[in-house]
Amino acid sequence: LRNSFAPKAGKQNLRHQYYLQPQASSSKVAILGAAGGIGQPLALLIKMSPLVSALHLYDIANVKGVAADLSHCNTPAQVLDFTGTSELANSLKGVDVVVIPAGVPRKPGMTRDDLFNINANIVKTLVEAVADNCPDAFIHIISNPVNSTVPIAVEVLKRKGVYDPKKVFGVTTLDVVRANTFVAQKKNLRLIDVDVPVVGGHAGITILPLLSKTKPSVSFTDEEVEELTVRIQNAGTEVVEAKAGAGSATLSMAYAAARFVESSLRALDGDTDVYECAYVQSELTELPFFASRVKIGKKGIEAVISSDLQGLTEYEEKALEALKPELKASIEKGVAFAQKQT
Length: 342
Ligand code: NAD
Ligand code: LMR
Description:
Elements: H1 15-18, E1 27-32, H2 39-47, E2 52-59, H3 63-70, E3 78-83, H4 88-92, E4 97-100, H5 116-133, E5 138-141, H6 146-159, E6 168-170, H7 173-187, E7 198-200, E8 207-209, H8 222-233, H9 235-243, H10 251-268, E9 275-281, E10 289-297, E11 300-304, H11 314-340
Parallel strand pairs: 1-2, 1-4, 2-3, 4-5, 5-6
Antiparallel strand pairs: 7-8, 9-10, 10-11
Helix pairs in contact: 2-10, 5-6, 6-11, 7-8
Nicotinamide-adenine-dinucleotide (NAD) binds at residues 32-33, 35-39, 59-61, 101-106, 115, 119, 122, 125-126, 142-144, 146, 171, 174, 202, 247-250, 253.
Domain Lactate/malate dehydrogenase C-terminal: 172-337
Enzyme class: oxidoreductase
Protein name: malate dehydrogenase
């Protein structure tokens, strides 16, 4: 498995030279919500990718300055800015990957579902434009509540007659990034070696790290499993509380989203060894959407990996059953919202 949002190892050159490699840089990426807390650092990280030829930055305000600033970095991607709904369509023309971090973040005391009323409409409107202007693009949805915004996006695409289940991803990479970090710290492992699949959804108990499937194989006491699982499930809240009203995770999220974009670009570029966890349409359980590892290829998801759900521990089996009612309700809420719209 390779999930390397990092320069390939083995070269003695300075890291920054990687970003200047005269490699084919042919993909176009759009960020919708590009002037926000996630959008800005994400734009910087994507601007550093040698696989990107154009980076389209869209927001309802403040995006001109972000684009002017970024455009001075001497990396190949051409940066273009688009402000407001009148420029939304143009921001999407010819784009291969659309990343959506548009929407409001949590404040202390809120759940992700408390964001539904505002973010559901934002995601619906943006995905309608994606359907009209770049229906073949990979769509990465970051806006919360992901458990509901992905079903909303899917309903919009279905209504527009352009839904491809292989190309719609709820971004749960941050859960994997956190699980890898916390497990490596707890077990004194090299960070680069650790890979923990995280399944289910992206809110509270629906986030289920499968610690028994950690690579390399590690043994945990029952107490360690409980402590790590709860910390991974509450890691978003940990950041929301530390930021004390100034928003939720932005930098770690940008890092995680950039890794997912880079993986998608490698897949589009013909790499046949790309695996990531994502919240997608799924038949792994009785729920229509479920996060798991997926294999990504040129045309999107090539396989949903079922083996991670086999041979679970009793703790994981119970946690899997316990998350289903909440995840089901969030999916149904998203679908009902989208179907109610004209
Ligand atoms: P932010 O408020 O800093 O930025 C949001 C940006 O979206 C702003 O620039 C705003 O102008 C823009 N925006 C609002 N309405 C828009 C519209 N209709 N079209 C385009 N842009 C619009 O928030 P943030 O910290 O960047 O978080 C954004 C979202 O990402 C939140 O919903 C948050 O909960 C979510 N999030 C998800 C994960 C995850 O793991 N999936 C992690 C962190 C945050
Ligand atoms: C996260 O996991 O950090 C995000 O979903 C943001 C949040 O509200 O916790």
